[in-house]
Amino acid sequence: MIFSKPSAILFAFLSSCLFAASIHAQSVPLDKIIAVVDDDIVMQSELTRRTHAITNRLKVQGTPLPSQEVMHSRVLDQLILENIQLQLAERLGIRIGDTQLNATIDSITKSNKMTLAQFEAQLKAEGETYSSAREQIRTEMIISRVQKREVDRRVRVTGLEIENFLASKEGRTQSGAEYYLGHILVSVPESASLEEIEAGEKKGNDILVALKAGEDFKKMAVEKSDGRQALNGGVIGWRKENELPSIAADIIPKLKVGEPSNLVRTSSGFHIVTVLEKRGGKQQLIDQAHVRHILISPSEIRTDQEAKTMIDKLYERISSGDDFAELAKSNSDDPVSAIDGGSLDWVSPGQMVPEFDNKMNQVALGVVSKPFRSQFGWHILEVTERRKQDMGALIQTNQAKQVIHKYKYERELSNWLLEIKSEAFIEIKGQKIEDESDTDNSNAEDQIEEDQT
Known about the structure:
By secondary structure, the protein is α+β, with helices and mostly antiparallel strands. About 55% of the residues lie in helices and about 15% in strands. It folds into three domains: about 30-175 and about 390-453, Triger factor/SurA peptide-binding fold; about 175-280, Chitinase A, domain 3; about 285-390, Chitinase A, domain 3 (Roll), CATH 3.10.50.40.
């Protein structure tokens, strides 16, 4: 074919454009699909980013790296499982908003004793950006919610399982009592004469008489004990039931707090032990308060200041003699307690949010507190009764239930992940998973072949 002059110019222009596109194709590799997962896909760029992030983190931790092939395989498997669960979350309508995400990141930084700036610097040192880490945290939160929703329903803990666990060695170790022990030793040499033994026994009995009369155990230990902890007031420290000194393992659980044991004779002399403090076990006395309250919460139609004004007026009315229960029924924004005149029944320490817990512990019996703020809104409260309640059995049962539930949950989670993966449509594209350098070279080679043809 013979080209006219305009056509030749157009051909030259198009050729230069194709050449420029060829150069660009070599410098900026195209992304590609690595795997098809049900209705979604996993891209090469995702695999590359995640592999780099994990590799950099392992390097910072000083952990030896597996081969690139093993690393890619494991990371791809992680991405596929995440993808399946995220699709499930989408169908279930599970979302994590920015407010929840920000609160979680704030909690992470505080638990690691870092500021947000220090957290970002740590991520940068590991080769990761704050924005990508932020989205990964959001992903993990969504997946955690999906797992809890789907796996929790498969876990059941029976009363018999709890009883068997508490009777087991592991159960006694985890839920048994702990004792803060004191020890006094009157030393007697192994080769002591009868007179020395009698003198040691008399000294021990004299100490025991003083203790039973009310003398301070730590003071007596500093003055009289020959034990290694004498200058520390004879304090041994906290010991679990399975860690008690063998010479007094049968004696200590029977002692009341502050009660000294009788003399215990060993080859080293005469011993007196006591329980300075005790926690856990079957008997745990908890200070409880019987509380009622009124809550006024801010809302779309009520500002925080308007809520504060309302609670102030209610406080004034109660102070003037109006009935607390009736005002709670007609005004409180806590629908559960409002029905019962604001009653929260018996409340244990730590059961409520810190602001409520602190006010409950500070207010005098029968006195209505001044209005105070919590994350739920504005409150006034009244403590109508206080008591010490033995919650040991309930606490032990709850602890055992949590341990058993955690074990079963982990087992069921593994089974569930295998199930959802086996039920999903998964297609891995190609036998070789390339990294960025492989992709760059292959794209360049393909382009050179196209230019030559």
